[in-house]
From TrEMBL:
Protein name: Helix-turn-helix domain-containing protein
Ranges in a coiled coil: none
SMART domains: HTH_XRE
InterPro entries: Cro/C1-type_HTH, DUF5753, Lambda_DNA-bd_dom_sf
Length: 278
């Protein structure tokens, strides 16, 4: 298979392949020696850049002694690596799209999130996240695992990345988890919004219809890869990095930003809601 630019499906395959190789206890160099391959072939494969054909993938996965289910999953990803977009259906308690999203967030340098109904996930306090998860499609026994995974995502909220949150005012008025949780969540937003690497902007209700009415989305930017758009649904996650889709959502961001309040005005909105809860 010719070497290509990394895309979201190729990187998902590469991450799975990297995990499979790790289970063997071998380094990539040692594994290349065992297979009599050039080390760069494995390096390209785990970085989602191709350079390996289907037969070689089958040989590599067989050498790693993966269970049949995992092997089929990685082979399917490999075969889809040239397709536009990537859809993930969860197969256990912690949705696969959440784990994949976390991996991409960790690799990103800039994240822009639009949220119309809820406080963005990266800014949710544990109690708020628990109430949201409990109200969702998850089995009761899975709720703690999903909440823990969601809260672990917030560890990336540190200097070194830029975060832009565009949030509709109605999301701030939704009393998720009851008044006490609601109040603490709003106070948390105020504390986070003063950090220099976090840009928090409210879309006021007075705007009426706006560019984000189709639903929430996230745009992630990377130092080495094309930008990536993520859409979350009840039972799957959608990832897109084709130029046409990315351009469409980047236009949404610009149009939302054009009607958003500035940072200070956005904090005033939160302050006013909190004052009404006293």
């Amino acid at each position: 298979m010719p070497k290509r630019e990394s895309n979201v499906v190729g990187r998902e395959f590469g991450n799975g392949l990297r995990a499979a190789i790790a289970k063997t206890g071998l380094t990539q160099r040692k594994l290349a020696e065992e297979l009599d391959w050039d080390e760069s072939k494995i390096s390209d494969a785990v970085n989602g850049k191709g350079g390996i054909d289907l037969h070689e993938v089958e040989v590599l996965l067989a050498y790693c002694r993966l269970p049949l289910g995992e092997r089929k999953h990685l082979l399917a990803l490999f075969l889809e690596a040239g397709e536009k977009g990537f859809i993930l259906f969860p197969e256990d308690g912690v949705p696969d799209q959440l784990r994949t999203l976390i991996n991409h967030e960790k690799e990103s340098t800039a994240i822009t999130a639009w949220s119309m109904v809820l406080v963005p996930g990266l800014l949710q306090i544990p109690e708020y996240a628990h109430a949201v998860t409990e109200a969702g499609p998850h089995e009761k026994d899975d709720v703690p695992k999903v909440v823990a995974a969601r809260i672990a995502r917030t560890e990336i909220l540190r200097p070194g990345r830029t975060f832009t949150f565009l949030v509709h005012e109605q999301a701030l008025w939704l009393p998720v988890g009851g008044e006490e949780v609601w109040r603490e969540q709003l106070a948390h937003l105020l504390r986070m919004s003063v950090r220099q690497y976090i840009n928090f902007h409210v879309i006021p209700r007075s705007v009426g219809a706006h560019a984000g009415v189709a639903g929430d989305f996230r745009v992630m930017r990377f130092p080495k890869y094309p930008p990536l758009v993520f859409l979350d649904t009840l039972n799957c996650g959608l990832f897109f990095d084709d130029k046409e889709t990315v351009a469409l959502y980047e236009d949404r961001v610009k149009r939302l930003a054009a009607v958003a309040l500035n940072r200070e005005e956005s904090r005033v909105v939160i302050d006013n809601i909190l004052e009404g809860l006293q």
